[in-house]
């Protein structure tokens, strides 16, 4: 895959650590020119210096202009990786409007805004690649995190829409849907993450490996945890049975709190 991205302009949002940093390192190793974005300017600078990239700090929804300028006007690959997660959705109810607003803005609308800005150029030249870091929660769900689960469904739906609408015009789309990944976000999921995600958690580098393999095989859906495919099939095949099983996990979580 080194030759495939040699000289390409790549933007990775939320790349100050975790999956984003792993993606930035992998694209740089493949010869790409990488813009490292993060809200935390120091974290972005640190990763950029490590890989010979360019740090562009700020909100992922608002940095595309600066990122494009840093890449001499051309973005070939955009990795919509920045994301937020809030606990919410226990017996106390799912409504925390601050969490919902932030989750919609970062997990969904940042992707929409980026695509809106990128598509005119990509469609004119007949090529472009949009990588959406979703989550297995976007295919399945996640206990104790209603805003996260719902907006990750939205992120997946938008990636699907991009793919079906523009694939015949040269736009490639990939949706990465891992379960637990050993990042700061996983550490912040608390007891729900400990129960559901920690036992099978993988490293961020494993996610980058899965993406590059999926790109090589020209696949839309990237599953760093292959077992998620069976869970997704079970959910579609018998929703009530699947929901009953998930509710047992919910009850187990409530009993452990």
TrEMBL record:
<dbReference type="Pfam" id="PF00106">
    <property type="entry name" value="adh_short"/>
</dbReference>
<dbReference type="InterPro" id="IPR020904">
    <property type="entry name" value="Sc_DH/Rdtase_CS"/>
</dbReference>
<keyword id="KW-0560">Oxidoreductase</keyword>
<dbReference type="InterPro" id="IPR036291">
    <property type="entry name" value="NAD(P)-bd_dom_sf"/>
</dbReference>
<dbReference type="InterPro" id="IPR002347">
    <property type="entry name" value="SDR_fam"/>
</dbReference>
<protein>
    <submittedName>
        <fullName>SDR family NAD(P)-dependent oxidoreductase</fullName>
    </submittedName>
</protein>
<comment type="similarity">
    <text>Belongs to the short-chain dehydrogenases/reductases (SDR) family.</text>
</comment>
